[in-house]
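Structure in, sequence out. Go:
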């Protein structure tokens, strides 16, 4: 019998830009079922979730391909609804497909995995001189990302580059990081894909950790006997 992975996006499901690439690392014995915190909402309704000063900022993608930015506080009850739904559908493990930091408020009968904890736990162990670069989707996330990663004790530089816009923001991040004296680059968003990782690695000459694949590899260990 296949194991069921319940995947929760902070945006709208299904995440056809994410799940297929992760599935390659999960094994053949895993079925993915999805739910989204913004499912059922119109674009105009989502715009009402606009972040204010000191809000924790999240960035995600809608089913129509548009990128949205919103405050985490607005979706917390909706995330619990996603958990409840996926449990009813038989999820064995629940994964937030977002590298943001979430409060410890969710109730579940099944294990909940947070990519931020996996990425934050592994990446600092790969820093050998104490210098880490982080790519985050939006300029409004730079401060909170710097605070989060500085807790590892590493010297941190954070640059914004969205994986969701039509503009090539990644080129600017590559140029900024290319000549920096850094040990490793963390692409701190599930939206970044393997093609983007290759561009950053080749463009900077630095090793790169990609959130979606490192999380999928860990999940493969958990879900496959």
């Amino acid at each position: 019998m296949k194991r069921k992975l319940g995947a929760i996006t902070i945006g709208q499901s299904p995440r056809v830009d994410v799940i297929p690439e992760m599935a390659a690392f999960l094994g053949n014995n895993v079925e993915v079922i999805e739910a989204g915190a913004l499912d059922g909402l119109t674009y105009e309704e989502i715009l009402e979730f606009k972040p204010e000063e000191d809000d924790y900022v999240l960035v995600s993608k809608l089913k129509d391909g548009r990128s949205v930015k919103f405050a985490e506080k607005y979706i917390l009850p909706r995330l619990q609804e996603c958990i409840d739904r996926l449990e009813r559908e038989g999820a064995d493990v629940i994964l937030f497909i977002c590298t943001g930091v979430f409060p410890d408020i969710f109730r579940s009968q099944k294990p909940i995995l947070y990519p931020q904890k996996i990425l934050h736990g592994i990446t600092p162990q790969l820093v050998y001189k104490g210098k880490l670069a982080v790519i985050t989707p939006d300029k409004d996330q730079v401060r909170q990302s710097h605070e989060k990663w500085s807790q590892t004790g590493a010297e941190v530089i954070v640059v914004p580059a969205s994986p969701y816009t039509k503009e090539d923001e990644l080129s600017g991040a590559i140029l900024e990081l290319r000549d920096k004296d850094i040990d490793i680059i963390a692409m701190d968003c599930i939206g970044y894909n393997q093609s983007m990782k290759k561009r950053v690695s080749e463009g900077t000459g630095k090793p790169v950790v990609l959130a979606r694949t490192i999380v999928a590899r860990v999940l493969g260990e958990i879900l496959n006997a």
